[in-house]
Each structure stands twice: as C-alpha cells, then as structure tokens.
Automatic annotation (TrEMBL):
<dbReference type="GO" id="GO:0003955">
    <property type="term" value="F:NAD(P)H dehydrogenase (quinone) activity"/>
</dbReference>
<dbReference type="InterPro" id="IPR029039">
    <property type="entry name" value="Flavoprotein-like_sf"/>
</dbReference>
<keyword id="KW-0560">Oxidoreductase</keyword>
<dbReference type="GO" id="GO:0005829">
    <property type="term" value="C:cytosol"/>
</dbReference>
<dbReference type="InterPro" id="IPR051545">
    <property type="entry name" value="NAD(P)H_dehydrogenase_qn"/>
</dbReference>
<protein>
    <submittedName>
        <fullName>Flavodoxin family protein</fullName>
    </submittedName>
</protein>
<feature type="domain" description="Flavodoxin-like fold">
    <location>
        <begin position="1"/>
        <end position="215"/>
    </location>
</feature>
<comment type="similarity">
    <text>Belongs to the NAD(P)H dehydrogenase (quinone) family.</text>
</comment>
<dbReference type="Pfam" id="PF02525">
    <property type="entry name" value="Flavodoxin_2"/>
</dbReference>
<dbReference type="InterPro" id="IPR003680">
    <property type="entry name" value="Flavodoxin_fold"/>
</dbReference>
C-alpha cells in the first residue's frame, strides 16, 4: 500500500516528530511505501492567494474557485500544489498528523487543504443538477482510498469525552473527518488521539507508540467511520437533508450523519496488510 503522511509540526524533536517516526517505521516495516509531506520543513505556503494562479490576467478579479477549476483543468496549478495532488493520487491511504491547536488543525495544514483541494479534483466533481448534487461525501476522486488523523492534545481524554467541557473529540474532528476527508471520497478511519500530551513520560510514550503501531498495522483493514453517503438514498435532493425517520430518536447534530454500518468501498488490493509480516515489525 502507498501511504502519504502529511505532517504539520514545526519541531522535529517534538512529541509529534517522535510519533511520526514511529508511524513511518512501522509502515515501512510492514512493507508499505511511505511519503511524508513535512509542511514546515517544505516551507509550505499556507495562504491561498493570487500567486496560486500565475496565468490569471493582472486585471481579472480573483474568484478562487473559478480560478482553481481553470488551473486544474489546464494543468496550470503551481508545482507545489500539483506535487501534492500527485502524491494524493499515488496514495492508497493518507494520514494527516498534527497537534490540536485551538480545537483544530494548525494553519499550515489548513492551508495545505485550501490550496491542494483544487476544484474539479476534490470538489465540484460529478453531475450537479436537480437530481444529483455532485460526487461527494463518500464519492469523488479520492474514493477507494483510506484516510485517518493522528492528533495530539494538551487536554485530558475526559475533557474531550461525551460530557467534557471541550466538547466530544468526534464532534471537534467532524469538520475534518467528514468535511475534509469524507467529502472528496475517502473512507475515514477513527482518529488516533494522544491526549494530555504535555504530561508524557517515557512509560506513557512507550504505550502510546505501541498503540500507534497497532493502528498502523490495521490501516488497510480497520472499518471506517460509518458516515452516510450523500448519494446512498439517505438524503433528500436538493435540500440535502437527512430523510425523516433516519437516525435514532433524539439524535441531533453531527451524529445524525452516522449510518448503520461500515461504508467502506468494495475491497481494493491494498497490498500488504496485517498478517505474518506484522509480527516481524
Ligand atoms: P511536545 O511539546 O513536543 O512534547 C510534549 C511532551 O512529550 C513533553 O513532555 C515531551 O518531553 C514529551 N516527549 C516528546 N517527545 C518524546 C519522546 N520521544 N519520548 C518521550 N516523551 C517525549 N491543546 C488542546 O487540548 N486543545 C487546544 O485547542 C489547544 N490549542 C493549542 C494552541 C496552540 C497555539 C498551542 C501551541 C498548543 C495548543 N494546545 C491545545 C496544546 C497542544 O495540543 C499540545 O501542546 C500538543 O498536542 C503537544 O504536542 P507536541 O508534539 O507539540 O508536544
């Protein structure tokens, strides 16, 4: 399996740096091909702006999504953006790794999404009509690939529990898991979250690293979060509301978009999976 790890931390000697090394070593030991996009080390340009569309006439108004669509179609995206799209096409699985900063991803990673998710590639895909609202939420150009988050938090696990003051972690990560990953088609695996990262000693690091290795061993096989597919019949078109009667009574908000079972795409050959080889790693 080809794995792309998009890594957003400015310090290689950080906890995140150590966990990245653990993940990459395990994946390589399992026989996977791994590429890392180390955004700070790459000097990734976070803000999308006019410089992203160098062929746009100087006096033309910048309409980002139109310019993105035209540049994607013409093969005129900037080389850094095109390089990341090529990596996404190459990958069977994509991991986004970051420390939770202000309950979301660091700006540099958000800027990676803003710039790399070109229109026609990650959105604006498929038929848009009275009968169909595009290929998205489970369909799209990234369908058939898997994705997951590796996240570290300063807060405790209880702070992110069902009654925790920060809000449940699955709710906080919903805009990323559902809005950024499921939207263009990924099968999204449950996140790996290392809580209370400021209080990690050697023993806790060893335990966390082993849990992460286990998640890497099951990257190809773990059931994804059972988000409902947009075009699977659960939503009305064009209002895109969940049909009456779906969702357990009393369920509201993000949880409504969880269906009954796994929505994984039909099995594709993902190469090496957990098995005998895993025991050697
Ligand atoms: P580091 O600071 O590098 O390390 C954390 C601990 O791990 C240290 O004790 C270090 O000694 C230890 N460690 C590192 N490497 C190893 C190793 N190899 N072996 C053993 N131990 C090791 N937290 C929240 O919960 N919610 C928020 O909204 C939030 N917002 C933030 C916003 C900003 C701008 C910042 C700077 C922090 C925020 N935090 C928040 C805290 C943040 O999530 C944590 O600081 C971060 O997750 C820690 O990851 P790190 O890689 O930076 O850890």
């Amino acid at each position: 399996m080809n794995v792309l790890l998009v890594y957003a931390h400015p310090e290689p000697r950080s906890l995140n740096g150590a966990l990245r090394d653990v993940a990459v070593a395990e994946l390589q030991c399992l026989g996977h091909e791994v590429q890392v996009s180390d955004l700070y080390a790459m000097g990734w340009k976070a803000a999308i702006d006019r410089a992203d569309f160098p062929t746009l006439a100087a006096d033309e108004r910048l309409a980002i999504s139109d310019a993105s669509k035209a540049a994607f179609k013409a093969g005129e995206l900037t080389p850094d953006v095109q390089g990341e799209i090529d990596k996404l096409r190459w990958a069977d699985a994509v991991i986004l790794q970051f420390p939770l900063w202000w309950f979301s991803m660091p700006a540099i990673l958000k800027g990676w999404v803003d710039r790399v998710y070109a229109r026609g590639f990650a959105y604006g895909v498929g038929e848009h009509s009275d009968k169909r609202w595009g290929d998205r939420y489970g369909e799209g150009n990234l369908a058939g690939k898997r994705a997951m988050l590796i996240v570290t938090t300063g807060g405790w696990e209880t702070h992110y529990g069902a009654r925790g003051v920060n809000g449940p972690i699955d709710d906080l990560l919903f805009p990323i898991n559902h809005g950024i990953l499921f939207y263009p088609g990924f099968d999204v695996l449950p996140p790996f979250v290392a809580y209370q990262a400021g209080r990690i000693d050697e023993a806790k690091f060893a335990a966390t690293a082993e849990q992460l290795r286990e998640r890497m061993r099951t990257l190809a096989t773990a059931p994804p979060i059972p988000y409902r597919r947009q075009n699977g019949g659960d939503y009305l078109i064009p209002s895109m509301e969940l049909r009456a009667g779906l969702g357990a009574p009393g369920t509201n908000g993000f949880a409504l978009h969880l269906g009954e079972g796994p929505t994984a795409h039909p099995a594709i050959d993902r190469g090496t999976t957990a098995g005998d080889k895993a025991k050697d790693c």
